[in-house]
Amino acid sequence: MLETSCVSQQELLDYLQGRLPEADRHRVEMHLADCPFCSDAMEGLSAIPEKEKIPGVIRQMKWNVLQNLRRKNRKKRKREFYVSLGMITLVLLFIVLACFFAYHFMVKK
To answer: How many domains is the chain built from?
Structure first.
């Protein structure tokens, strides 16, 4: 397999729309043959019927992914906050109980 760096999103779009020069088109085709990720991306882009709307579709997809990641991170941080709050509450409760019992047994003696 050839070691090549992935082509840019713009190069994929230009290739798909037939706007690449021959040399660049050949380089992209060689890369697509070796890179399953880019090959899958090209397959997905090819499935979009209106090629001129692809940049908008990609932008919307990126926005949706970012929103989902933010939502998941927010839930995770919230859960971690409540776990930490519960642990702190338990530690404080044990300290208060220890002080109470220590004081209670000191006064009894």
So the answer is: 2
Domain that holds residue 62: 51-109
Look-up of token digits 């519960």: 86
Residues 64 and 107 in one domain: yes
What's the rounded Cα separation, in Å, for the pair 49 and 38?
Answer: 19
Pull the structure tokens for residue 12: 């994929």
DSSP 47: T
Burial readout 39-64 (b: 16 or more C-beta within 10 A, e: otherwise): eebbeebeeeeeeeebeeebeeeeee
Give residue-wise pLDDT tens across range 41-93: 888 888 888 877 888 888 888 899 999 999 999 999 999 999 999 999 999 99
First-to-final CA distance of the chain: 84
Backbone angles phi, psi at 21, to 5 degrees: -65, 160
Whole-model pTM? 0.50
* C-alpha separations of 35 from 17, 38, 92 in Å: 20, 6, 56
